[in-house]
Amino acid sequence: MANNAFSDLWARAGSLARTAAAATRHAADSAKLSINIAAEEENLKKAYAALGRLYYESLESGTTPEGEAFDQQIALIRQTLQKIELYRRQKEQAPRQESTGEAAVETTAVAEDAGEMTTVTADPLAKDEDFDDLVNRLG
Q1: How far apart are CA 51 and CA 30, in angstroms?
Q2: Is the overall model pTM greater than 0.90, yes or no?
Q3: Secondary structure (DSSP) of 37-74
Q4: What angle do CA 75, 77, 81 make, to 5 degrees?
Q5: What is the DSSP letter of 97?
Q6: How far apart are CA 84 and CA 37, in angstroms?
């Protein structure tokens, strides 16, 4: 009986460790997405500035603002805006801890190439009667 109780306790500790690891992964994923968004927003500012420079130079030289250089800058801006939107959607889809104080943890792993998301849910602070009974029996 003591061996079985120890096995149950060991399994529960392993479960809590996995939950903590999932929460850590979620925090790291969220931080990575925030950094990616900030980096892309900086790239967007640079692309807008380059487009503005091209426009200004074409006006100064008396030509119509068009051509391959403009097309490339506009394509870069569109691509950057799409990346920002993708990162923001991924971040919004990552579950948030509600203000109720509940500690439900969901972590989202994102495969950027495949565009697939996998979500794992755990509640590390959930009231677990079996675990409490086990601790009482051992204590």
Answers
A1: 31
A2: no
A3: HHHHHHHHHHHHHHHHHHHHHHHHTT--S-SHHHHHHH
A4: 115
A5: -
A6: 6
